[in-house]
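Meet my pick.
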Amino acid sequence: MSIAIGQNAPDFTLFTSDKKELTLSSLKGKNVVLLFFPQAFTGTCTEELCHMRDNLSVYDSLNAEIIGISVDSVFTLGKWKDDEKFGFTLCSDFNKEVSRLYGVIYENWIFGMKGVSMRAVVVIDAEGTVRYTEVVENPGNLPDLAALKSAVEQLG
């Protein structure tokens, strides 16, 4: 991961599954959890994001905004969000710019696919500073969800 703890989180603007633009810097004053994931509708991605959905009240109580990011289209993410009833924002990095900016992209992935987001977590504090990162080497594995929660809790 090219993003280091202690640095300012690089700003970006992406379209959400609701077809609205979201700019990271517009969330200043809130803690932010960026969840990069390979592809909607796949087993481990669904398990990870359903865990976040089921624990959303915990993150809400910690003033944390959860943002899921993948290279899927806004239409795919919208359908998946509706199906799974995710109560947080999903953003399309269809052009792969943010995944590359954060250094969390598989240039070559399975089935000949190129440019797919890795499974990674970035926790950003209310001032915009990166406080926790994790890149999961095997995309079939979940991130350390307990460590993620602890990192957000430490932000106060």
